[in-house]
């Protein structure tokens, strides 16, 4: 996977769509900072770590959520196959993937990142990770809008797929509208 990314093997034969260097650079820094902060959380009670818990049961719950996020991530990558391109360097896929986790969720890769983020907050027990998760969510929203725009434009069947799947969560959760509908109002008349 790293070799494919490093050599941009994911881009072979595909049309370039979007690049988000901010996400690429900042996410690498965030990753290193998360590791650097999480390790001391287990042994230090320093006030600057902004801890909200030191409970091992909560940490186990966090690790479980991280595990499910990682399983979802790997499953998503397997089903994407050659359609994969990283969120910071997007290329149009060869075809629309609608099986595996994509049968229910349009963006399981982003859901997996979000689950790992929630799990990371619970494992670390630090408030420092909450704004990080907020930043991931903002980047996720930006990227999904770009992805869905080119999927609507590229695949006529995406409209039907969009209607029968959820953006992130399976059954009984809300769907956030990703398709924008413009409403025009008649010009106001002066009285």
Describe, in plain words, how this protein is organized in 3D.
- 53% of the residues lie in helices and 4% in strands.
- The protein contains six helices and two strands; from the N terminus they run H-E-H-H-E-H-H-H.
- The N and C termini lie far apart (66 Å).
How is the largest sheet built, in terms of strand order? 1-2
| Rg | 20 Å
Count all strands and give the number: 2
Query: Largest sheet, if any?
Result: 2 strands, antiparallel
Outline, from the CA principal axes?
elongated
What is the string of helix and strand elements? Answer: HEHHEHHH
Enumerate the spans where pLDDT stays under 50 for 5 or more consecutive residues: 171-191
Strand content: under 5%
The rounded distance between the terminal residues' Cα atoms is 66 Å
What is the count of helical runs? 6
Structural class: mainly alpha
Could you estimate the helical fraction of the residues in percent? 40-55%
Give the overall pLDDT as a whole number. Answer: 81
Brief write-up:
This protein has 191 residues and is mainly alpha-helical.
Sum up the structure in keywords.
mainly alpha; single chain
Furnish the topology, listing elements before pairings.
Blueprint: H1 2-6, E1 16-19, H2 21-41, H3 56-80, E2 89-91, H4 108-124, H5 129-154, H6 158-164
Helix pairs in contact: 2-5, 3-4, 4-5
């Amino acid at each position: 996977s790293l070799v494919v990314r490093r050599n941009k093997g994911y881009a072979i034969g595909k049309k370039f769509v979007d690049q988000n260097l901010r996400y690429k650079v900042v996410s690498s820094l965030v990753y290193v900072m998360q590791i650097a902060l999480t390790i001391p959380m287990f042994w230090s009670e320093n006030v600057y770590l902004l801890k909200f818990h030191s409970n091992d049961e909560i940490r186990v719950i966090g690790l479980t959520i991280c595990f499910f996020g990682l399983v979802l991530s790997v499953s998503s990558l397997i089903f994407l196959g050659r359609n994969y391109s990283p969120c910071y360097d997007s290329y149009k896929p060869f075809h629309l993937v609608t099986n595996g986790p994509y049968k229910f969720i349009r963006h399981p890769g982003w859901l997996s990142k979000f689950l790992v983020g929630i799990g990371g907050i619970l494992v670390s027990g630090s408030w420092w990770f909450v704004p990080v998760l907020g930043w991931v969510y903002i980047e996720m929203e930006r990227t999904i809008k770009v992805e869905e725009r080119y999927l609507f434009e590229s695949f006529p069947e995406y409209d039907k797929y969009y209607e029968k799947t959820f953006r992130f969560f399976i059954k009984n959760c809300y769907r956030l509208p990703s398709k924008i509908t413009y409403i025009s109002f008649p010009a106001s008349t002066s009285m």
